[in-house]
Amino acid sequence: MTLMQFAWIQTFFATVKTGSLSRAAEELHLTPPAAGKHIRRLEECLGTPLFIRSAHGMALNDVGKQLAAPFHEILNAWDEVQRVVSRPSKPVRIGTLPSLATTVAPRVLWNFHTIQRQQAELVLYSTSALITQAIIHGEVDMGFMDGRSAPSEYWNIPLFSESLVLAIGHKHHLAQCESVPLEALEVESLIMYSDSCDVRQGVEQHLQVHGRRLHATLEMPFGASLLTGVASGLGISVVPKSVMIHYDKTRIAWRRLENGPARNIVAVARSSQWGSLLTACLPDFAVVQCE
Fold first, then answer.
1. What's the pTM value of the predicted model, to 2 decimals?
2. Which one of 117, 151, 167, 197 has the fewest CB atoms closer than 10 angstroms to its CB?
3. 135-165: per-residue pLDDT in tens?
């Protein structure tokens, strides 16, 4: 059924209500010839007259009376369709790590707003494990996280891989080095988040492979800035390289860790409907890649 046929049915009911094509046309803001054409096209489509025409106006014949109820159901169904599609859609909720909020998230938000014409909002989580739980429980529609924590039962796509680097104050003795050996993480004063932190877990696993252990002398609560601690001279820290790219270089330097760890960032979504949008963003994520 086309939109024009809905207009025919609307003219049908206006004619029944008013008993006159001219009055039906006035109610529907049509010309009388246009209203008459709607009724003729409807009757031609059905192959039968629907009205008894007389000098006193128009009244339904027996077929028209039988079709009144089904026509009402059609118009009611169409009204429901229009009501649903005109309802404001809920924003797409995207869970992300704070370290990705200034790199991955802005481009995705831009695509949602300009390409999808869809509102989207960020929800920050301190760890990838929390993002995974939020996806499972339906609290967010998609998430950007460390690939080690990505739930395999949901649609996902790799975004990029980046190195973890050492953040160092300019006055620290390691700032004189072009790169820093892994063993420095065992002997230097190291500032890290708690052991549930994705970066810390990645560093610890990498060190274990090399027969070494991470030695955190100061644990910061989530929400506190590791880099502020580094800039204050409290120690050094291991952070994603993309974080350092956006940080004030006059306050802190960063150095490559020799044979250092990396993290793989993936997007996980409850539905594959966002797949094309995320795939379109991949070239933009390339600028986040290290090396």
1. 0.65
2. 117
3. 998 899 999 999 998 888 888 889 888 999 9
